[in-house]
Amino acid sequence: MRITNAEFLKSALKPSDWPDDDKREIAFLGRSNVGKSSLINSLLGVRGLARTSGTPGRTRTLNFFLVNHIFRFVDLPGFGYARAPREIKQTLAEAATEYLAQRKQLVLSIQLVDSRHEPTQQDLQLHDWLKYHHKPHLIVATKSDKLSNNELNKSLNRMAQILKSKPVAYSARTKRGHDEIWSAIEKSLKN
What we know:
Rossmann fold
């Protein structure tokens, strides 16, 4: 897909503040510091559009990005080891769950898992929740450039065993997996 325009639209936590139209949405979700913002920036070819941080848990709202004036990318708050008060973690988890469960515009969820680590219990729970609720989704193994080909193949095979789904290896640095992810996005936008 050729990206002619990509812009930050808004940050919002409450459903009443989310965009209220029929534009289709692609959601990016996963643990804190797994590379959601880097993936979004890389796919769109725009540096710094989605804010990246070395500190886990910086995304504390749902961030909406308008792409080609036609559809949106949505960066959901990360789960896991974010340093935030329990009440804030609870609020973020509730907002993300409500978005995934009820958002009619959502056509694809892209679940990111760090290729350097075995999927966590939370990764598995999220994957199982998406499958149980029949949500179209794609698993992307991020940071694949940080492993040798042999290590990456072992990691992808192990991930496929645990999650019962074949992941797409991705690197924001080398663009590995770029075309496969865009193919899945384009397909979901057409359905």
